[in-house]
Automatic annotation (TrEMBL), chain A:
Heterotrimer of A, B and C subunits. One of its GO terms (cellular component) is glutamyl-tRNA(Gln) amidotransferase complex. GO terms for molecular function: ATP binding; glutaminyl-tRNA synthase (glutamine-hydrolyzing) activity; transferase activity. This is Glutamyl-tRNA(Gln) amidotransferase subunit A. Allows the formation of correctly charged Gln-tRNA(Gln) through the transamidation of misacylated Glu-tRNA(Gln) in organisms which lack glutaminyl-tRNA synthetase. The reaction takes place in the presence of glutamine and ATP through an activated gamma-phospho-Glu-tRNA(Gln). It comes from Parasporobacterium paucivorans DSM 15970. Residues 25-466 form the Amidase domain. One of its GO terms (biological process) is translation. It catalyses: L-glutamyl-tRNA(Gln) + L-glutamine + ATP + H2O = L-glutaminyl-tRNA(Gln) + L-glutamate + ADP + phosphate + H(+). Keywords: ATP-binding, Ligase, Nucleotide-binding, Protein biosynthesis, Transferase. Signal peptide: none annotated.
Automatic annotation (TrEMBL), chain B:
The gene is gatB. GO terms for molecular function: asparaginyl-tRNA synthase (glutamine-hydrolyzing) activity; ATP binding; glutaminyl-tRNA synthase (glutamine-hydrolyzing) activity; transferase activity. PROSITE patterns: GATB (PS01234). This is Aspartyl/glutamyl-tRNA(Asn/Gln) amidotransferase subunit B. Its EC number is 6.3.5.-. It catalyses: L-glutamyl-tRNA(Gln) + L-glutamine + ATP + H2O = L-glutaminyl-tRNA(Gln) + L-glutamate + ADP + phosphate + H(+); L-aspartyl-tRNA(Asn) + L-glutamine + ATP + H2O = L-asparaginyl-tRNA(Asn) + L-glutamate + ADP + phosphate + 2 H(+). Allows the formation of correctly charged Asn-tRNA(Asn) or Gln-tRNA(Gln) through the transamidation of misacylated Asp-tRNA(Asn) or Glu-tRNA(Gln) in organisms which lack either or both of asparaginyl-tRNA or glutaminyl-tRNA synthetases. The reaction takes place in the presence of glutamine and ATP through an activated phospho-Asp-tRNA(Asn) or phospho-Glu-tRNA(Gln).
Length: 490, 477
């Protein structure tokens, strides 16, 4: 049996039934990662020793009967912008090349409580800024479906290592599509929860008002179990929301009869790849056949989401990233004259081009004289976009559409044209601006064989609607594995 | 030379007396080894998040209510972005767009009567750490113990016209805040800091002149001196046909001279924007009411009550209430002893005397009211006389000792046992027939001598009135 071909819940069950040991599972994940990393490069840091140690500890807790959760003992990976106590956390940036956090993010603590065995930290676009994982200071991650293509981003590492079966699940973060888009490109499932559902304490901020941590796994059931483990109200995060309901598993029902699904016409216009369009529309008709009421409508304001997002996210980022200055931790330029030059050199050498671009963009839109014209206008746009969604959710239970206009681009193709790269976020960004939950799950492949993602968007705190629809759709197709995952372990 | 008047506005920073910092649970205690009162939040570690200390909002609202401000029902925190190593995030969390309090005033007494000084706003913010330059290693070290200590900034309207008005206004603010218990307001320790915005204009002019901002003012005296010096400097410039430059200046109180720190041209663009990590502060009417109900009795009300209820002179009431701490000691002593006049005397005369001689602040008084009350009871019951009482008071002041225990242990209790005294006095009368004769011969002095002898015999502990009474009884027989 190839342990790593299992889903997270399957593995958890086998661990519970003593068919697989926790250490055995961790070793399998580590062995597989070691074998594939030279090709995929989904990890910034692999923590073999730490993983074995915690596997031994967790095995004990399972044996004692104190740890009984469905994910107990299952090895997993954490995106490198989520703090892990004692384990290097770089945000894939040179400026944090040596940062070992003295604390763990609340999301990590929650997963550890559920018995997660962290085997390493996954690669990402530097500070989550990018859609390809190519802006990482530690090298690109390759798409397990085709090594010449990017895995998407910014949680490219988290999605690639699930697709390549180096781990069965991972945590990512989503500010403008950073979980959903790489999930779509890598043929895995990812959820961006309602803003405030997962604590941001310990998540190194990019756009604070948009960032959310969420699960990446092979299917909807796994994602649901992970979401139940990772979500919590956290007093340490003032934007955390105490939800009425943290039960998502009850939505795993294969039944969409009477569910009202809206398809925004705005999402199927110019720029959408024909294969993607066809796969997404096919998914819609499958749900319709299963009894859902599917209807097209005009969401409106779609074209304003991208400019509003890049103003708000960059503004927040320009301030959030100010703390990386060479004074307290991280990279400090080796030679400098005085304080000012230390700042300048450390930051110039420590940050990559895309991060600098967004810091400059953000500093500009917050400057006196421009604040009203850019930042305030963007905030007003954000409010209008939320209103447009409110209107839509008065009529529909969920909104269905593509995740991205195309499948994964080739390596090196995107960075030359940042505007084109930004436009690739068109279907995911509005969800963050409105704080909504959304899921990305595979719905087919294009002519090149690259995976296509289906996006289902729910109203705030209505994860269960999208989980139910996603689960129902998932029942109609087989999980597809890339060739690299099927190869015998080396 | 033309007549000029000053136009002054103040920005007063006050460190709030909360136990923990504004956005984390680290202690605000002064001192401590560098970077020991810190956590990921107040050292700006990646991924850490601020959580607002509710007590900070309550203190800010209490000060706002005491200064007649409108309380902002929907208030927000903004980030003020600038790079400096004492500021671990390289932004300070402050309030620009929606400060917690606005449009208030305080009334001050001036030579020409009561004057209203407008309060433009009061906002909450976090303090920065401290830089320490190590001369030996030629490097600068940062201590973040103070980083995140809560501050309020009270911004006045440009309503002040003289150094005297400034001092009166500051004293008024200080007392209000001390009475609220919101801060100890020590200028020399930096828990109260005032920046002075000052411009001059010809008397009668309507428009304002160009202003400067003066920093580094660590005492009321320094503030006075800096204001006078800046006034002269600006007048001189204008009289010479030069212009005042809008700039920030730093006062050197030893040299009695200020120098320019930075001009308006160098002013930074702080790129303020609402902090996305903090929820807006929503203040309900109930919350305002609960603060209102908890407002203490302020100085003016206290003075009035002392005069009416305790029948003490206005002057005394003013002295006692000039420190909330003294007023508290006074009131509790009255409560315990039931003798307002006595309590007032001990504070007005003896306490003030010791404070003056030792150059102490009233806040440093550390004896408990219960011990002063006991002392008053000892006098009242005739157990000790006033001479002894003064000696005992000094012990109470220094060591906060129980006076009952002290007089007992040191044998200071006055002889009030009539029988025993009678015996002693009879002996003295018997031993001094000459004096008795003199007394009967009309020499009043002789009585004084006999009383003195009795006091000597009782080592000063006898009640003089009682001695007089017994002596007269014996002699008249």
């Amino acid at each position: 049996m190839d342990i790593m071909s299992l889903t997270a819940l399957e593995m958890g069950r086998k661990i519970k039934n003593k068919e697989i040991g926790v250490v055995e599972a961790a070793k399998a994940a580590l062995d597989r990662s070691e074998a594939l990393e030279s090709i995929v490069h989904g990890f910034v840091t692999l923590d073999g020793e730490g993983a074995i140690r915690s596997a031994q500890r967790i095995q004990k807790l399972i044996d004692e009967g104190t740890l009984t959760g469905p994910l107990a003992g299952v090895p997993m990976a954490v995106k490198d912008n989520i703090c892990t106590k004692g384990l290097l956390t770089t945000c894939s940036s040179k400026i944090l090349y040596n940062f070992v956090p003295p604390y763990s993010a609340q999301a990590v603590l929650n997963m550890e409580k559920a018995g997660a065995v962290i085997i390493g930290k996954t690669n990402m676009d530097e500070f989550a800024m990018g859609s390809t994982t190519e802006t990482s200071a530690y090298g690109v991650t390759r798409n397990p479906w085709n090594m010449d293509h990017v895995p998407g981003g910014s949680s490219g590492g988290s999605c690639a290592v699930v697709a390549s079966e180096e781990v069965s699940y991972s945590l990512g973060s989503d500010t403008g599509g950073s979980i959903r888009q790489p999930s779509s490109f890598c043929g895995v499932t990812g959820i961006k929860p309602t803003y405030g559902t997962v604590s941001r304490y310990g998540l190194i901020a990019y756009g604070s008002s948009l960032d959310q941590i969420g699960p990446v796994a092979k299917n909807v059931s796994d994602c649901t179990a992970i979401l139940e483990a990772v979500a919590s109200f956290d007093k340490k995060d003032s934007t955390s929301v105490l939800r009425e309901n943290y039960d998502f598993s009850s939505a795993l029902v294969d039944d969409v009869k009477g569910m009202k699904i809206g398809i925004p016409r705005d999402y199927f216009g110019q720029g959408l790849d024909e294969d993607v369009k066809a796969a997404v529309m096919a998914a819609a008709s499958i749900l319709e056949q299963k009894g859902a009421i599917v209807e097209e409508f005009d969401l409106s304001l779609t074209e304003y989401a991208i400019p509003a997002y890049y103003v708000i996210a960059s503004a927040e980022a320009s301030s959030n990233l100010a703390r990386f200055d060479g004074v307290k931790y991280g990279y400090r330029a080796p030679e400098f004259e005085g304080l000012h030059e230390m700042y300048k050199k450390s930051r110039s050498q420590g940050f990559g081009a895309e991060v600098k671009r967004r810091i400059m963009l953000g500093s500009f839109v917050l400057s006196s004289g421009y604040y009203d014209a850019y930042y305030l206008k963007a905030l007003r746009t954000k409010a209008l976009i939320k209103e447009a969604f409110d209107k839509a959710f008065a009529k529909y239970d969920i909104i269905l559409g593509p995740v991205a206009p195309s499948t994964a681009p080739r390596l090196g193709e995107s960075l030359t044209d940042p505007i084109k790269m930004y436009l690739g976020d068109i279907y995911t960004i509005a969800v963050n601006l409105a704080g909504l939950p959304a899921i990305s799950l595979p719905c087919g492949r294009d002519k090149k064989g690259l995976p296509i993602g289906l996006q289902l968007i729910g109203d705030c705190f209505k994860e269960n609607n999208i989980i139910r629809a996603a689960y129902s759709f998932e029942q109609t197709r087989e999980y597809e594995r890339p060739e690299i995952a099927k190869e015998e372990r080396r | 030379m033309k007549q000029y008047e000053m136009v002054i506005g103040l920005e007063v920073h006050v460190e709030l007396a909360t136990k923990t910092k504004i956005f984390c649970s680290c202690t605000t205690q002064f001192g401590g080894s560098p970077n020991t009162h810190t956590c990921p939040v107040c050292t700006g570690m990646p991924g850490s998040l601020p959580v607002l200390n509710k007590q900070v909002v309550e203190y800010a609202m209490a000060v706002g209510i005491a200064t007649n401000c409108d309380i902002t029902r929907y208030s927000k925190f903004d980030r003020k972005n600038y790079f400096y190593p004492d500021n671990p995030q390289n932004y300070q969390i402050s309030q620009l767009y929606l400060p917690i309090c606005r449009n208030g005033y305080v009334e001050i007494e001036t030579q020409s009567g009561t004057k209203k000084i407008g309060i433009h706003e009061i906002h909450m913010e976090e303090d920065a750490g401290k830089l320490i330059h190590d001369e030996w290693e030629d490097c600068t070290l940062v201590d973040y113990n103070r980083s995140g200590v809560p501050l309020i900034e009270i911004v006045s309207e440009p309503d002040l016209r003289s150094a005297q008005e400034v001092i009166t206004y500051l004293e008024k603010l200080r007392l209000l805040i001390q009475y609220l218990g919101a801060s100890d307001c020590k200028l020399n320790e930096g828990s109260m800091r005032a920046d002075v915005n000052l411009s001059i204009r010809p008397v009668g002019a309507q428009e304002y002149g160009t202003r400067t901002e003066m920093k580094n003012l660590n005492s009321f005296k320094a503030i006075s001196r800096a204001i006078e010096a800046e006034k002269l400097r600006q007048i001189e410039l204008i009289e010479e046909g030069k212009t005042v430059i809008q700039e920030t200046r730093r006062w050197d109180d030893n040299k009695e001279y200020s120098y320019a720190m930075r001009s308006k041209e160098d002013a930074q663009d702080y790129r303020y924007f609402p902090d996305p990590d903090l929820a807006p502060v929503v203040v309900t009417q109930e919350w305002v009411d609960s603060i209102l109900n908890r407002q203490p009795e302020f100085r003016d009300a206290k003075i009035k009550r002392y005069i009416e209820d305790f029948k003490i002179p206005e002057y005394d009431a003013q002295i006692i209430t000039s420190s909330k701490h003294l007023a508290d000691i006074f009131e509790e002593t009255v409560e315990l002893s039931g003798q307002p006049k006595e309590a007032s005397n001990w504070i007005m005369v003896e306490t003030m005397h010791i404070l003056k001689v030792r150059e102490m602040e009233p806040e440093k008084v550390s004896f408990s009211p219960s011990n002063l009350a006991k002392l008053i009871k000892l006098i009242e019951s005739g157990k000790i006389n006033r001479t002894v009482a003064k000696e005992v008071f000094e012990v109470i002041f220094d060591k906060d000792m129980d006076p009952e225990k002290y007089v007992e242990e040191n044998g200071l209790i006055m002889e009030s046992d009539e029988g025993a005294l009678k015996e002693i006095i009879q002996k003295i009368v018997d031993a001094n027939p000459k004096s008795v004769e003199d007394f009967h011969g009309g020499k009043e002095k002789a009585l004084g001598f006999l009383v003195g002898q009795a006091m000597k015999e009782t080592k000063g502990k006898a009640n003089p009135a009682l001695i007089n009474k017994i002596l007269k009884e014996i002699l008249m027989h």
